[in-house]
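Hi there,

I know you've been waiting on this one. I reran it after we fixed the sequence typo, so this is the corrected version. Both the input and the resulting structure follow.
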Amino acid sequence: MYEKTGATKIELTPICVYKINTFAILCFCEMLEMEKLSGEYEMTKVLFFLDLPDNSTYPDTFKLYFKRRY
């Protein structure tokens, strides 16, 4: 999680297993501690939103994932 978000301490809650091409698991991740991202990874910044952004990679899929509030 650090490479993508800067999270150094997380809590994962499994939600479900799914299959598109291969099996994978969907988890809810709560970030408990974060640090500034290192320049050695591809991510340059982390943004926080109150709602899902309009320009996400798979907007319809993410809307389904976040339809239920935890």
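Quick highlight: The chain has one domain: 2-65.

Best,
R. S.
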